[in-house]
Amino acid sequence: MIALLFILMTYNAKIFIKYPFKYERFSPDTTCENCYGYVEDSVVTNTKVEVKISRKIDKIIKEKEGILNDSGFVQINFDYWDDGQEVKLQNIENMEIYLPDANIVERIGEEINLLPVVFKDINFRKDTIKLVLPEGTVLVHQFDLYFGKYNNNIVSYKFVVISDPHIGHGWNGRNRGQDFGTSGYNDDTIPSQTTPDLDRVRNIVDAVNYLALFDHKIKFVLLTGDITESAEKSEVKKAYRIFTKRLKLPCIPIMGNHDLWPYVWEDDRPCPWGREEHGEGNIILGGYFYGSWFEGFKNVYINLREYFPIPLFKEGPYLLEPEPAYIYPYKTYCSNFTFQYYNNLFIGIDFNSRTHAPSMWGFGCRTTFYR
Question: Labelling 139: which of 84, 104, 121, 201 has CA 20 to 30 A away?
Answer without folding.
Answer: 121
